[in-house]
Amino acid sequence: MPEDARPLTAAEPARGPERRPASGASGAGGAARAAAVVMAAIFASRLVGLVRQRLVAHWFGTSAFADVIAAAFRVGNITQNLLGEGTLSASFIPVYARLRAQGKQREATHFALSALGLLLLTVVGLSVVGALAAPLITRLIAAGFDADRYQATVRMVRITFPMTGLLVMGAWALGVLTSHRRFLLPYAAPVLWNLTQIAALGVAAGWLSWRGGALAMALAWGALGGAVLQVLVLLPSVRALLGELGPRFDARDGSVREAARRLPGALLGRGVIQLSGLVDTFLVSFLGTGANAVHGYAQMIYLLPMALLGTGEAAVALPELASDTAERDEGRRREAMRARLGGSLARVFTLTVPTALALIVFGRELCALLLQTGSFDRDARARVVPLVAAYGFALLANATGRVLGTTLYALGDTHTPARYAMVRVVFSTAVSLALMWHLGVLGVVLGAVAAAWLEVALLARKVRRSLADGSGATAGAALGLEHVRIVRVLLAGALPTGAALGARYALLPLLGDGPLGAAAVLAVFGAVFLVAAQLLGLGGARSFLRR
Fold first, then answer.
1. What is the pLDDT of residue 79?
2. Number of other CB atoms surrounding residue 475 within 10 Å
3. pLDDT for res 273
4. How far apart are CA 153 and CA 157, in angstroms?
């Protein structure tokens, strides 16, 4: 395990600010290694999550209870993203990372514990209000549900809100650990959350023979137990870094006030984005039984690479970019941030373009391999495949947008991403409403795809202006895009796609279009990509593969 990912042991004292290069080869190499660690941890978590989702698909398929699970967990995910990692990324991590880069370890610790105290109050209030307001929340997100699905969703939402509160606490721990460049543990900890749900489904369905609503509630209670385990695993490492875990309530602290000033913009930005997800869930609820389920399955497949390539890269970039802002010379600060941003975008492009092609062209194989079992039959697969392909067109935009938004957060600008997020929601909703009555769920997804590209264009323009130094550099240079080898990246996507298409038609008569044939086709895609990436000299891919 590399030094930047090694957990701090209990016998190891919390250290002062770490020396690190702000830019250059060694700095880029460290960021690439950190990104690889995050990707590996997220991949492990998502892989177990795929097993969990496969069991959900097996037992519930596209039934009414699958709709209930998709809607209830959507509420939990949205709330967690609103108050957890997304908001903390914009308000807590930049301030904490900058204090550490300036050598102010005592002030950084005081700030972190003050943030913990305020977050505890928020989480307790959120859990109580969410449980009491579950009927209203369910009515808002799933107005198209019939009475049975509505009541079942209300019961599940009352469990997901305390679960969400615990996951928000885990996001605070993640913020501390990643600011100390401890990436492996916080991003691998969600494995426990998924494992407890798998265990709950296994015991309830396999041993107790529960089905329907009882089995769905067992899944929800398993998720709550997993959230408890996740937090308990993270806290010892955080305590080793901070020296204590006692929450404080110092609202007069200057750093707390700075984070509070960033908070409204962060909440607005994340809130608008999460509102977009709620609007999508609301619209899909009117499209018949199974619509929310197939929408959720497609999102699950799409979010695996999105978490790896967008969220993972942004998680690594934020503390690094925030530390760069400690540089007093404006010219050197902008130069360092442009280099850092360019390295991040190069890694995103290298892996996202081929992955997007896989989603667009091989959605049938992905659904067959990951979901086709039990109640999830070929008809259910046929409903999900077009949605997976559509999401493929959004992958590059959303992954790039995450990194660009993170750059603005590091610069202390939380208001601009919030404004652009509002534009995104309005545009996405308008397009979805125009298309959904003709295209069903696909119309809602296409609205989200179009809005993603609009938002990334706006973010790119703002970041370019923020990092430009008046030297007359091109827009690409201001964003660090000279690091992206676009022709090689396109070849690294086209070569495996062509080879896997040939394998599809060659192997279809022998292996069929079920999971076995799908695994063979996707294996060809992966193998050819490995070879192509090495031959084309794509460093981001090599770093990832070595890890």
1. 67
2. 13
3. 65
4. 6
How confident is the model over 266-283, as pLDDT tens digits? 655 565 666 677 788 888
> Secondary structure of the chain: what % helix, strand, coil (to 5)?
80, 0, 15
Q: Token digits for 166?
A: 């615990």
Distances (CA, A) of 495 to 222, 411, 505, 522: 43, 39, 16, 13
d(CA 79, CA 348): 27
281, 431 Cβ separation under 8 angstroms: no
Report pLDDT for 433. 93
Compute the residue count for the chain.
547
Q: What residues of the chain score a pLDDT lower than 70? A: 1-36, 39, 78-90, 262-275, 310-312, 314-319, 322, 324-327, 469-478, 539-547
Determine the residue type at 218.
Answer: A
514 close to 507: Cβ distance less than 8 angstroms:
no
- Is the Cβ–Cβ distance between 227 and 195 less than 8 Å? no
> For residue 537, which of 480, 503, 500, 489 has the smallest C-alpha distance?
489
- Residue where the block lists tokens 């060694």: 26
DSSP state of 3: G
pLDDT at 209: 87
Torsion angles phi and psi, residue 373, rounded to 5 = -170, 150
Quickly count: other Cβ atoms within 10 Å of residue 150's Cβ. Answer: 18
Among candidates 178, 189, 177, which has minimal Cα distance to 239? Answer: 177
DSSP 358-391: HHHH-HHHHHHHHT-BTTB-HHHHHHHHHHHHHH
Largest pairwise CA distance in the chain: 71
Q: Which residues of 505-514 are buried (b: 16+ CB within 10 A; e: fewer)?
A: eebeeebebe
CA distance 480 to 459: 14
408/314 Cα distance (integer angstroms): 11
Strand-pairing partners, residue 188, are none
CA geometry: angle 25, 31, 32, nearest 5 deg: 85
pTM of the model: 0.68
CA-wise closest residue to 179 among 94, 118, 90, 247: 94
Residue among 371, 355, 370, 297 nearest 540 (CA): 355
Residues 6+ apart with CB under 8 A from 516: none
Q: Which residues of 422-457 are buried (b: 16+ CB within 10 A; e: fewer)?
A: bebbebbbebbeebbeebbbbbbbbbbbbbbbbbbe
Q: What is the pLDDT of residue 372?
A: 83
Nearest partner of 164 among 130, 210, 204, 118, judged by Cα: 130
> Exposed (0-12), middle (13-18) or buried (19+): which is 329, by Cβ within 10 Å?
exposed
Report yes or no: 386 and 363 within 8 Å, Cβ to Cβ. yes
Question: 373: which strand partners?
Answer: 376
* Gap between the Cα atoms of 166 and 224, Å rounded: 8
DSSP single-letter state for residue 307 = I
Are the beta carbons of 347 and 313 closer than 8 angstroms? yes
**How is residue 358 written in tokens?**
């896989």
